[in-house]
Write a structure and sequence with these properties.
heterodimer; A: 90 residues; alpha+beta; Alpha-Beta Plaits; 4-stranded antiparallel beta sheet; 3 helices; B: 455 residues; alpha/beta; Anaerobic Ribonucleotide-triphosphate Reductase Large Chain; 2 domains; 11-stranded mixed beta sheet; two-stranded antiparallel ribbon; 13 strands; 17% strand
Chain lengths: 90, 455
């Protein structure tokens, strides 16, 4: 696995970025870019990450992040970046 | 670099607007499984399907999880069984054994449908073709996941009216044999004209003899996405804006299909074939082609203007889709099944939509009269007449047309039938009470149409 996009959607709370980035650091996943916005009162964050040094399977990371999000009342999704690149770039 | 609004847009399509990859269908040639012994043929079929498709479901699910887009169905299509079984099947019951072997394999491999219990008889039937066709009612009653199709005509050959006549009877018989389940056997049986060799969508999928040994074909979907975009940006706008928006959206949807297809092809070690661009509805709310037609400006599908609106929609979907993938094939258009689309069901219940209007709509879109429940006492000749009408539209207009009609045993016009799951539910529709019996009773075929003087 190389580049992936992590999205965090839900109510803003203390420590979202801290917990998410700590989880990524533990798994040797490097954050390339972070951006965030509020849409309809909801906190939306997107991280572009490089996971080429991570030796766990993609599925395990995605599930781990989803669980981490559930603990904070948030939805965290981890998707391979190609789906966004293919859809939005000719 | 990708920005947050693009990411959110994609995820909104997936999470709220029912964007999904409708099917990864692996086409597998069974030509090399044919043997003069039925047992050996069945065994060869099982082994070949296992060899190619044992990882199909797992791989499809994996890709779905990694990209975060549901891959709803994983399916298999095979060489028309009438060809595969020609050397070993001496009677119809032998073909039913082959159908059961396919059904067992489908269950073992975890695919929800296997297509290709088929005969291609556009010009005439071999004894094996006819035996297979006559075995369809028993095969559909005895199996759960096998889908059957019969191609009765083409632009190049004309229409085999003997096969059309026979299919009217077979559809009725299939309905009777699966009477206890609202004649569901007919939902897995489709009669085609100009059937493509690479269609990934059931029930008409088969792996044509022009194809390679195995291939990955993918059907995308996304009527909900198109509907949402039109609703939020196109109300009252010009046709130019409308067309541009549909095209742009179709491009995005198709790119997802292309990505999934290439990934599936790479991981399974099977060449990528085509993307089928069809907008395929499901009974789920917000996943309806009829709703798009309403958003374009119709009170209900079936209102005057429906054919024009559908023609426009279908064409823009293709224009956007071909930009997104170099290999487009299959049926590629907008599907207008009745039972599988809540908006179509509503239109029938409101009295807006009749079989005759649906027939007109099939002139400008794929694929035909699809998932239409009619009274159980509809004569076989009338069903043949409906099939002949659709086949004629396909033949003359050089397009694929099909009929998947369910004469629901014991039910009358206005009653409801429940097929369950993706097949949905449907009101029983009215069929013209006027007879075409003498027309259908004629022997032979309708000659191929002239390819000039287009009027």
């Amino acid at each position: 696995m190389d580049k992936a996009i992590i999205t965090v959607v839900g109510k803003d709370t203390v420590g979202i970025i801290a917990k998410t980035s700590a989880y990524l650091a533990r798994n040797a996943i490097n954050i390339l870019d972070i951006s965030q916005t509020v849409v309809g009162g909801y906190f939306n964050m997107m991280m572009i990450v490089d996971a080429s040094a991570c030796d766990r399977p993609f599925d395990a990371i995605a599930r781990g992040l989803s669980k981490l999000g559930a603990g904070m009342g948030l939805e965290i999704r981890c998707q391979k970046s190609e789906i966004f690149e293919k859809m939005h770039r000719v | 670099m990708i920005n947050i609004s693009e990411v959110l847009e994609t995820n909104k399509m997936i999470l709220e607007e029912n964007l999904d990859v409708r099917t990864i269908t692996m086409g597998i040639s069974l030509l090399d499984c044919a043997d003069s012994s039925l047992a050996k043929t069945c065994d060869g079929v099982r082994r070949k399907l296992e060899r190619f498709a044992k990882n199909l479901v797992r791989t499809g699910d994996e890709i779905g999880r990694e990209f975060g887009v549901p891959v709803v169905n994983k399916r298999i299509s095979v060489t028309p069984v009438a060809v595969v079984g020609a050397a070993c099947c001496r009677r119809s019951a032998d073909f039913v054994r082959l159908a059961k072997a396919l059904d067992r394999s489908a269950k073992e491999l975890g695919v929800n449908f296997i297509g290709g219990y088929s005969a291609v008889v556009s010009k005439g039937m071999t004894p094996a073709d006819e035996m297979l066709i006559r075995s369809i009612p028993d095969a559909m009653a005895a199996t759960e996941r096998v889908c059957s199709s019969v191609n009765v005509g083409s632009t190049k050959t004309g229409i085999d009216m003997d096969a059309v006549r026979l299919m009217g009877e077979i559809v009725k018989e299939t309905a009777a044999k699966t009477k206890s389940r609202d004649s569901i056997g007919c939902a897995k049986l489709v009669v085609l004209c100009n059937a493509p060799d690479d269609n990934p969508f059931m029930a008409g999928a088969f792996h044509g003899v022009t194809e390679g040994d195995a291939v990955i074909n993918v059907g995308v979907s996304g009527p909900g996405v198109v509907n949402y975009v039109l609703k939020s940006t196109c109300r009252g706008e010009s046709f130019e804006t409308l067309c541009e928006t549909v095209k742009r959206t179709a491009f995005k949807i198709t790119r997802v299909g292309q990505l999934v297809a290439q990934e599936a092809s790479r991981r399974l070690g099977v060449p990528f074939g085509i993307i089928d661009l069809s907008l395929a509805p499901t009974p789920a709310v917000g996943d309806s082609v009829a709703d798009i037609l309403k958003e374009i400006g119709l009170e209900h599908p079936g209102a005057p203007g429906t054919t024009a609106a559908l023609a426009l929609l279908n064409d823009q979907v293709k224009k956007g889709g071909v930009m997104a993938s170099s290999y487009v094939g299959g049926l590629s258009g907008a599907f207008i099944p009745v039972s599988e689309d809540q908006g179509m069901i509503d239109a029938v219940n409101a009295g807006a939509l009749t079989i005759e209007k649906l027939e007109a709509m099939t002139c400008v879109c794929s694929v035909g009269l699809d998932m239409i429940a009619v009274p159980g006492d509809t004569p076989a000749s009338s069903i043949s007449g409906i099939i002949a009408d659709e086949a004629a539209i396909g033949m003359v207009n050089q397009k694929t047309t099909a009929v998947r009609i369910i004469p629901v045993a014991g039910k009358r016009e206005g009653e409801n039938v429940e097929f369950g799951g993706l097949l949905g539910h449907a009101p029983v529709m009215k069929v013209s009470r006027f007879s075409c019996e003498k027309f259908i009773a004629r022997r032979g075929r309708i000659p191929a149409p002239i390819h000039s003087f287009k009027n």
